[in-house]
Amino acid sequence: MREWWIHVGLICIPLVAVYLHVPPPQLTPALHKWLSAGEVFHFRGRNVFYKDSYGALGSSDVVILLHGFPTSSYDWIKIWDPLTQRFNRVIALDFLGFGFSDKPMPHRYSIFEQASLVEALAAHLGLSNQRVNLVSHNYGDTVALELLYRADQNRTGHLTLNSLCLSNGGIFPETHRPRFLQRLLLDSSFLAPILTRLTNFLIFQKGMGEVFGPYTQPTDAEFWDMWIGLRHNEGNLVLDSILQYINQRLKHRDRWVGALASTLVPLHMIYGPLDPVNPHPHFIHLYQKLVQRSTITILDEHISHYPQLEDPTGFLKAYFNFIHSF
Question: Which residues pair with 54 in a beta bridge?
Answer without folding.
Answer: 89
